Amino acid sequence: MLPCQYACHTAPHAVSRRGFLGATAALGLGGFASAGAASELKRSQKRVLVIFLAGGVSQLETWDPKPNTETGGPFKAIQTSVTGTRISELLPHAAKRVHKLALVRSLNSVSDDHGIGEKIMLTGRRLEPGIEYPHIGAVAAKLLGGGASALPGNIQILPRGGSGFGGRDATFLGPKVAAVSLGDGKPPADLFRPKDLAGDADAAREAFRRKLNDRFARSRRSAATEAYAESYAQAERVVRQADVFDIEKESPKVADRYGRHDFGRHLLLARRLLEAGVSYVKVSHSNYDTHHENFDFHIEQLGEFDRPFAALLDDLSDRGMLESTLVVVMSEMGRTPRINDRYGRDHWSKAWSVALAGAGVKGGAVVGKTNATGTAVTDREVSSGHLFHTYLRAVGLDSTKNFYPNDRPVPVADPKAAAIEEILA
C-alpha cells in the first residue's frame, strides 16, 4: 500500500464493548431464526451495503473514462459485459460484471469539502441550519428492521486510522439505529469469552448475576432497571452470534478471492454481517484524496478494490442475496478533470459518478452524460437527493413518507428530488 494520509486529519475512532453493546441494546430485535427461516431471510430481507471510497475517487479512472483527451490521463477505456459501455482499464474484474451494475455518470453533489461532501452523500440533503438529517444507514436500520438478527442494524467497518460519525449519524431517529463502528474491521473488544475463563465458571458467574439482578428487580424495579436488563439480554444475544465476526471461519479459497489485505477482509466481513441479518453495512476504503500522483495511487487503490468487489457481487448472486441487497459504490466527491502540476487531481463535485447493483436496480443501465473532457454534465444531472430516493425505492421503501420527531413531519428524503427511474427495475 502506498503511504497516504487523510487530507482532513481525522482522529481514529475507538469502539469499546460497552459502546458496541449499548448501541445494540435497544434495537429490540428477536432471537434466532430456524435454519429454514434463516435461509429465507437471506433471500427476502432487504439490505443495503455502501462501499465508501474515502477521499474522493476519480470518475475518470473508474466509471466515466475520457481517454485520448487533455483531461483523460494515461489509462484506456475497456469494453464491459454490456455492449457499448466502457469503463477504466483499472477495473477489469468489475468490467466483466457491468451487466449487474447501474452507472450514474451525471452527479453534481455541490460541495468540494470532505466532511460536508460525505454528509451530503450519506443524507441526500444539503446542509440546512437548525436540523441534522439522519444518514442512510440509520434510515435503513429504522425502516428495514432486520428482526431475525440479534446484531445491530447499522454497522460501519473502518480502515486502520479511519473515523466514523461517532454514533451521531442517527440524529433524531435516536441511538437505537446509530452506527456501531468496527475499527480495522475487528470485533468489539472483549466480545469473546477470555481463554482463561472456563465455560462452566462463566455460566456459574452468570447464574449468580441473574440471581442478584432478580432480587434487586423485585424491590426496586424501574424504567432504568428495565432498560439495563434489556441491554444485558441484548448483549447476550450478540455474544451468541460472535462467530459472525470471525472471518477465519471462511475457507482459505474464499479468503483468497477477496484478498488478504484489509479491504478484502473488511468486504468479506460485510458479506457475513449482511448474511446474518444486518440491515446496513458501510465499508470504507481509503485513501483516494490524490492531489498528487493521482494515477499511481489509483493503480494501487483500484487494484485493491476491483477483485474483492467482483468477488462480493458473485458471492451475493450465488447465495441468492443480490436481488435483495442494494450495493452502492460512492465517495464524498470526484476528482477534477484538470490534472495539476503534481500529476494529481483535486476536489470536484460538479460532474462525477456512482455505481449501484442488486435489489431493485436495473443491471446494465447507464444514466447521465458528461462532456468530452468530463468538465460538466450535459445530460440528466442528478443530486444526492435523487440518489437517496433511489436507494429507498430500490429496497421497497416509500421515499415520500415522513418521520415525525417531536410530532413534526420531516420528509424521509428530500422532497425537491425524486428517484432515478431509469435505473429502477
Can you walk me through this structure?
- Helices cover 33% and strands 15% of the residues.
- The protein is an alpha/beta fold.
- The strands form 5 sheets. Strands 6-5-7-1-8-11-4-12 form an 8-stranded mixed beta sheet, with helices on both faces.
- A hairpin with a 6-residue loop joins strand 15 (402-403) and strand 16.
- Helix 4 packs parallel to helix 11 (384-394) and helix 9 (262-275) runs parallel beside helix 10.
- The longest helix has 25 residues, at 294-318.
- The chain is globular and about 75 Å long.
- The chain starts with 16 loop residues before the first helix and ends in a 14-residue tail after the last strand.
- This is DUF1501 domain-containing protein.
- It holds the Pfam family DUF1501.
